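Troubleshooting log. The previous structure file for this entry was overwritten by mistake, so regenerating from the original sequence record. Sequence copied from the archived sheet and checked twice against the printout by T.R.
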Amino acid sequence: MSEMVMGSFRRSLGVVIAATNLSDDRSEPRDEVHHRSSAMLADQRRVSVLIVNLSPSGLMIRSDVAVGAGDWLFIRLPAVGDVRATVRWALGGRIGCQLERPIPANRYHAVLGAMAG
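Regenerated output below.
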């Protein structure tokens, strides 16, 4: 293979590895949930989202809104209200976010309980 083709392959591979690392860069497991909520974007628009998993420091939502890594939003959570989150990755309607401040343990269980009920 030519050096030009190999260089292109290495760059492509690097992008794949980087994208994989972003989605797996978690310090704690996520709880699977199915909770309809809303998020406010940086431009002040409020959009519908579906929260599909949650941990004290992050979550994944589904939405058709166009966001990218580094964008921020406020996501409405039961029992704690709006929390600020930074988009870590977005792919095909799935959006992985890191919360600006982790949800304290005593409040986290209340959030999960409210989502279940």
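The domain at 29-116 is CATH 2.40.10.220 (Thrombin, subunit H). Archived copy saved in two places this time.
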